[in-house]
Design a protein that fits this description.
By secondary structure, the chain is an alpha/beta fold. The chain contains 20 helices and 26 strands. The strands form 4 sheets. It has a 17-stranded mixed sheet, with no helix packed on it. Strands 3-2-13-11 form a 4-stranded mixed sheet. InterPro entries: Leu-rich_rpt, Leu-rich_rpt_typical-subtyp, LRR_dom_sf, LRR_domain-containing, LRRC8_Pannexin-like.
C-alpha cells in the first residue's frame, strides 16, 4: 500500500509558505487529502481483492427439434439431482451437491477476467483511479505557483524578508515608540499640532507639519522596557533590511505574474470541478452489484451467458457518493475564491488602516504582485503586514539611520574633528554622512557647523543647546528645520553659507534670519534673476552686512539693492557670464568693499565711481584692456585697495598718480610692458603686485615708496633692479624670481625687516654676503636654488638656518 506521506511532494515545499495560504487553500488541502485517501483506498481494494465473481446462467428448454439432443444434454448436465434420501442403515451420510457445471478453477478465472473486461462498465472499473488522478491534479493546481520558477523565486524572497522584518528588534522598537506615549504627551501633541511646524528646503519651499505618532490598538502595544536600545549589529541588520525591502518592492511591483497564476489555477480547478460533477453524477449509477455478462467463449467453457457479482460495487457506490460530496464542497470553495479574487482589485494594497493605527503617515501604498502577496498575508494574519509596513516608511528608516548615526558618532569622536576656520571660529565639519547626529548638539562649545553633501538633514529644537553657535554652512544639503530651531537661529546665527546645485534648493527659512550679518550663496541661478522670487525676500535681512553670490547672474538682483542701506560688502563671482546693467550700484552708497570677479567686464563700470564710501575694489578675471576711467577714482577718497589682476591690461595710465589714498595695488597677470614713473607718486602704497607681466624696467622712482612692505615682479623680463629699491627700508616681502637678473646688489642688506625673498629662476652666480644683515630673513623665507644658497658664507648660512 502506498503511504499518503509519499504525496507530500505535491504540496508546498517549505512550511514558511503557509503564510501565503488563506483559509480556503488550507481547507481545500484537507479536502484533497480526504479525496486522496478515497482514491488510495479504492486502488488498494482493487489490487488486493477479487474484482468480480461469475457463474454460468441456466438455459431454458427450447421447442427447436434440431437441438433437442444438445439441449437435453445440457439440461441433464445442469438440472440438479434430487438429494439422496438417507438410508436407514446409514442415516448420517448425506452429500450436499449444487448445480454441476463441469468447469475447473482456471475456467472460472478466465470467465471472471473476460467478464470484468467486457461486461463491467468502465466507470465501475476505474473509479478509484479517476479519484486518485483528479485529486493529484487538484493538488498540483493548488501549489503550482509555489513551484513555478518565475513565481517561486519572488515568493521565497518575500517570505525570507517578511520573516526577518517580523522578528527584527527595530520593528518592535518602532511600534513601542508609537504605542508607549502616555496620554498627557498625546494631549500636548494634539494641542501643538496647529502651532508646531517644520520648514523644509524642497522644490516647493512649503511648510510641513511636524511628524507625530498616534497610538495603536492595545493588542499591539509593546512594553518599552523590553524594547531596549539596538546594538550596532542589530542596527546594521535593520538598515540592510530597509535596502532589501526597497529593491524587492521595485522588482515585484513591475509585474503581476503571481496574481495571474493564482487566478488561472483557481479557474482551472473550477472548470475541473464542473467536469467531475457532470460525468460522475451521470455515471455513478453504473456501479452495480449484479452484472450480466454475455461473451462468446462457449467453445472453451461450454457457456455463453453468465451472471456476475461485482464484489466492491456496494463500497464503490458509497465512496463515489462521498467523493461527489467532497468535490462539491471543494468546488464551492473555489467559486468563493474566484469571488474574492474579482470582488475587489487585489493588485492594489492600501496601508491606510496601518497608517491610522500606528500614526506613521508616510507608509506608501503598493501594487501588482507586492499588493497581492500582502492581501494573501492578511488572510493569514494582518499583524504580518503591519510589522512589514514599518520597513516601507521613510520616517522609520530615517529614525533608524539617526539611531545608527548617534551610535557611530559619539561626542568624543566629534570633538576630535573640531578645527578653527577662516573666521577664527571653532568649527565642526561633517561630510557625506547619512544625516546629522544628535550628538552634535552636545558639543556646547561649537561656534561653526559645516555640513557637506548630507541628504535629509533635520535640524531639531535641541540646537538651542549650542549657545555659542554663530556660523552655519550647508553645502549641497537638503535641510528641514524645526520651528523652535528656526527661532533660535533667528536670534543667534550671524553667518550662513549655502552651496547648491539648483536654485530651488535654497532654504526658504534663511530669509527670516533677521540677525544674519553674512550670507554666502554658491550655485547656479537663473540668468533673469531679477524676476526670481527666490531672492526677493533678501530685503528682510535688515542686519545683513556682507553678501557673496558665486553664480551666473547677468545683473544685480533688485533684492540686493533693497538691502543696500546696510550692506557693506558685496561679492559677485560669475562663471564668465557677462554682468550688465550695473546702474543699481549707485544706490549702494554705504558699500565699502566690492568684488566683481569673472563677470566679463570690458570697462570699469561707471556706477562704481559713485560709491563714495568704497574702500576696496576687486575686478579680477575680467576682460579689461584699457583703464583710462581710473582717473575717476580720485573722487573715491576712501579707496585704499585696488585689484585689477588677471585681466588684459596693456598699460597703466598716468592718471594713476591722482589715487593718492591707495595702499594696496594689484596688476598681476596682465600684459603691462612699461611702468610709468607717475605710479610711484602714490606714496602710501604698502602692497604692490606687478607679477606675471612683460615689464623690462623698474623706474628709480620706486624709492619714493617709503611705506612699501610687499613688492612682487615675479615672472617678468626685468634685467636689473634700481638701487633706489633698497631705500624702501620697510620692505618685508620681495619677489623677483623668474626674471633675467644676473646681479643682486649688496645694498639688499639695507632691508633689515626683509623676511621673505624669492630670487629663484634668475641668472645669479653668487648671492651677496650682505644678506646676512637681513636678520629677519631665515632659510625657510629664502626661495633660491640649493647650489646658489651654498655660495653664501657659512656663517650667513648658519644664521639663516638657526631658528
Amino acid at each position: 500500500m502506498i503511504p499518503v506521506t509519499e504525496f507530500r511532494q505535491f504540496s508546498e515545499q517549505q512550511p514558511a509558505f503557509r503564510v501565503l495560504k488563506p483559509w480556503w487553500d488550507v481547507f481545500t488541502d484537507y479536502l484533497s487529502v480526504a479525496m486522496l485517501m478515497i482514491g488510495v483506498f479504492g486502488c488498494t481494494l482493487q489490487v488486493m481483492q477479487d474484482k468480480i465473481i461469475c457463474l454460468p446462467k441456466r438455459v431454458q428448454p427450447s421447442q427447436n427439434h434440431s437441438s433437442i439432443s444438445n439441449v437435453s444434454q445440457a439440461v441433464a448436465s445442469t438440472t440438479p439431482l434430487p438429494p439422496p434420501k438417507p438410508s436407514p442403515a446409514n442415516p448420517a451420510t448425506v452429500e450436499m451437491k449444487g448445480l454441476k457445471t463441469d468447469l475447473d478453477l482456471q475456467q472460472y478465472s478466465f470467465i471472471n477476467q473476460m467478464c470484468y473486461e467486457r461486461a463491467l462498465h468502465w466507470y465501475a472499473k476505474y473509479f478509484p483511479y479517476l479519484v486518485l488522478i483528479h485529486t493529484l491534479v487538484f493538488m498540483l493546481c493548488s501549489n503550482f505557483w509555489f513551484k513555478f520558477p518565475g513565481s517561486s523565486s519572488k515568493i521565497e524572497h518575500f517570505i525570507s524578508i517578511l520573516g526577518k522584518c517580523f522578528d527584527s528588534p527595530w520593528t518592535t522598537r518602532a511600534l513601542s515608540e508609537v504605542s508607549g506615549e502616555d496620554s498627557e504627551e498625546k494631549d500636548n501633541r494634539k494641542n501643538n499640532m496647529s502651532r508646531s511646524n517644520t520648514i523644509q528646503s524642497g522644490p516647493e519651499g512649503s511648510l510641513v507639519n511636524a511628524q507625530s505618532l498616534k497610538s495603536i490598538p492595545e493588542k499591539f502595544v509593546v512594553d518599552k522596557s523590553t524594547a531596549g536600545a539596538l546594538d550596532k549589529k542589530e542596527g546594521e541588520q535593520a538598515k540592510a533590511l530597509f535596502e532589501k525591502v526597497k529593491k524587492f518592492r521595485l522588482h515585484v511591483e513591475e509585474g503581476d505574474i503571481l496574481y495571474a497564476m493564482y487566478v488561472r489555477q483557481t479557474v482551472l480547478k473550477v472548470i475541473k470541478f464542473l467536469i467531475i460533477i457532470a460525468y460522475n453524477s451521470a455515471l455513478v449509477s453504473k456501479v452495480q452489484f449484479t452484472v450480466d455478462c454475455n461473451v462468446d467463449i462457449q467453445d472453451m467453457t461450454g457457456y455463453k451467458n453468465f451472471s456476475c457479482n461485482h464484489t466492491m460495487a456496494h463500497l464503490f457506490s458509497k465512496l463515489s457518493f462521498c467523493y461527489l460530496c467532497f468535490v462539491s464542497i471543494y468546488g464551492l470553495t473555489c467559486l468563493y475564491t474566484l469571488y474574492w479574487l474579482f470582488y475587489r482589485s487585489l493588485r492594489e494594497y492600501s496601508f491606510e488602516y496601518v497608517r491610522q493605527e500606528t500614526g506613521i503617515d508616510d507608509i506608501p501604498d503598493v501594487k501588482n504582485d507586492f499588493a497581492f502577496m500582502l492581501h494573501m498575508i492578511d488572510q493569514y494574519d494582518p499583524l504580518y503586514s503591519k510589522r512589514f509596513a514599518v520597513f516601507l516608511s521613510e520616517v522609520s528608516e530615517n529614525k533608524l539611520k539617526q539611531l545608527n548615526l548617534n551610535n557611530e558618532w559619539t561626542p568624543d569622536k566629534l570633538r576630535q574633528k573640531l578645527q578653527t576656520n577662516a573666521h577664527n571660529r571653532l568649527e565642526l565639519p561633517l561630510i557625506m554622512l547619512s544625516g546629522l547626529p544628535d550628538t552634535v548638539f552636545e558639543i556646547t562649545e561649537l561656534q561653526s557647523l559645516k555640513l557637506e553633501i548630507i541628504k535629509n538633514v533635520m535640524i531639531p529644537a535641541t540646537i538651542a543647546q549650542l549657545d555659542n553657535l554663530q556660523e552655519l554652512s550647508l553645502h549641497q544639503c537638503s535641510v528641514k528645520i524645526h520651528s523652535a530651531a528656526l527661532s533660535f537661529l533667528k536670534e543667534n546665527l550671524k553667518v550662513l553659507s549655502v552651496k547648491f546645485d539648483d536654485m530651488r534648493e535654497l532654504p526658504p527659512w534663511m530669509y527670516g534670519l533677521r540677525n544674519l550679518e553674512e550670507l554666502y550663496l554658491v550655485g547656479s541661478l537663473s540668468h533673469d534673476i531679477s524676476k526670481n522670487v527666490t531672492l526677493e525676500s533678501l530685503r528682510d535681512l535688515k542686519s545683513l552686512k556682507i553678501l557673496s553670490i558665486k553664480s551666473n547672474v547677468s545683473k544685480i538682483p533688485q533684492a540686493v539693492v533693497d538691502v543696500s542701506s546696510h550692506l557693506q560688502k558685496m561679492c559677485i563671482h560669475n562663471d564668465g557670464t557677462k554682468l550688465v546693467m550695473l546702474n543699481n550700484l549707485k544706490k549702494m552708497t554705504n558699500l565699502t568693499e566690492l568684488e566683481l570677479v569673472h563677470c566679463d567686464l570690458e570697462r570699469i563700470p561707471h556706477a562704481v565711481f559713485s560709491l563714495l564710501s568704497l574702500q576696496e575694489l576687486d575686478l579680477k578675471e575680467n576682460n579689461l584692456k584699457s583703464i583710462e576711467e581710473i582717473v575717476s577714482f580720485q573722487h573715491l577718497r576712501k579707496l585704499t585697495v585696488l585689484k585689477l589682476w588677471h585681466n588684459s591690461i596693456t598699460y597703466i595710465p598716468e592718471h594713476i598718480k591722482k589715487l593718492t589714498s591707495l595702499e594696496r595695488l594689484a596688476f598681476s597677470h596682465n600684459k603691462i610692458e612699461v611702468l610709468p614713473s607717475h605710479l610711484f607718486l602714490c606714496n602710501k602704497i604698502r602692497y604692490l603686485d606687478l607679477s606675471y607681466n612683460d615689464i623690462r624696467f623698474i623706474p628709480p622712482e620706486i624709492g619714493v615708496l617709503q611705506s612699501l612692505q610687499y613688492f612682487s615682479i615675479t615672472c617678468n623680463k626685468v634685467e636689473s633692479l634700481p638701487d633706489e629699491l633698497y631705500f624702501c627700508k620697510k620692505l618685508k616681502t620681495l619677489k623677483i624670481g623668474k626674471n633675467s637678473l644676473s646681479v643682486l646688489s649688496p645694498k639688499i642688506g639695507n632691508l633689515l625687516f626683509l623676511s621673505y625673498l624669492d630670487v629663484k629662476g634668475n641668472h645669479f652666480e653668487i648671492l651677496p654676503p650682505e644678506l646676512g644683515d637681513c636678520r629677519a630673513l631665515k632659510r625657510a623665507g629664502l626661495v633660491v636654488e640649493d647650489a646658489l644658497f651654498e655660495t653664501l658664507p657659512s656663517d650667513v648660512r648658519e644664521q639663516m638656518k638657526a631658528e
